[in-house]
Amino acid sequence: MSVPAQRATRAPRLARVPGHEGVLRPEGVLRYARVLQHARVQRHAHVQRHSRARVVVHAVAIVAALLSACVSPTTAPDLVNEHWRYAGSQRVPSPLQLDGALRITSRTGERFEGSLDVRRTDALGQAERVIGLVNGRSTGTTLDFEATLDGAVIRHVGRVRGDSITGTWLDDGSGGAAVVSGAFTLVRVP
């Protein structure tokens, strides 16, 4: 038999039992095989556990980023300079005419802020200028905002039609005053 053929037929090395040279015990071989198999399984489970954990961490990070983008604006409000001509009338408790301007100065999504500057004229022709802050929201078809005028919070709700908005306003008297209501029209000034 040649040397290369001899190497090919040599048995794999097995653990020998101390004190019993040349004797292999089957229990030792089986135990050694089980230990190797267990180590292989543990290593595979460890790799799977870490790769699964990595996927979960990445998924949670992506979902958190998407939710934070949806829940809170990540950009500063857009500074705008929209002008609307405001015309209104008060029906209750006494008739008044309102004429002035709504100016929107900032927008963030549907939310907006600005000011309302109107001239209020009563039935006797006496007029006074009233200026207040405005904040609200505008969807594609409706406008809903509150104007703070003379300490009263007046809620406006209107329907958008092109470059005009018509609706009603109400001060429910929660500040101790009488209930005041009326109608308004806004027309965009180019």
Summarize this structure briefly.
Helix content is 28%, strand content 46%.
What is this structure's SSE topology?
Elements lengths: L2 H7 L16 H46 L6 E15 L3 E13 L2 E12 L4 E12 L3 E8 L2 E10 L2 E8 L8 E10 L1
Antiparallel strand pairs: 1-2, 1-8, 2-3, 3-4, 4-5, 5-6, 6-7, 7-8
What does this structure look like?
- By secondary structure, the chain is α+β, with helices and mostly antiparallel strands.
- It folds into 2 domains: 1-72, no CATH class; 78-189, Lipocalin, CATH 2.40.128.120.
- 28% of the residues lie in helices and 46% in strands.
- It is built from 2 helices and 8 strands.
- Strands 1-2-3-4-5-6-7-8 form an 8-stranded antiparallel beta barrel.
- Strand 5 and strand 6 form a beta hairpin.
- The longest helix is centred in the N-terminal third of the chain and has 46 residues, at 26-71.
- The protein starts with a helix and ends with a strand.
Shape: rod-shaped
CATH class of the largest domain: Mainly Beta
The quaternary state of the protein chains shown equals: single chain
Question: How many domains is the backbone divided into?
Answer: 2
Strand order, main sheet: write it out: 1-2-3-4-5-6-7-8
How much strand? Answer: over 45%
Write down the overall mean pLDDT: 76
- For the termini, the CA-CA separation is 104 Å
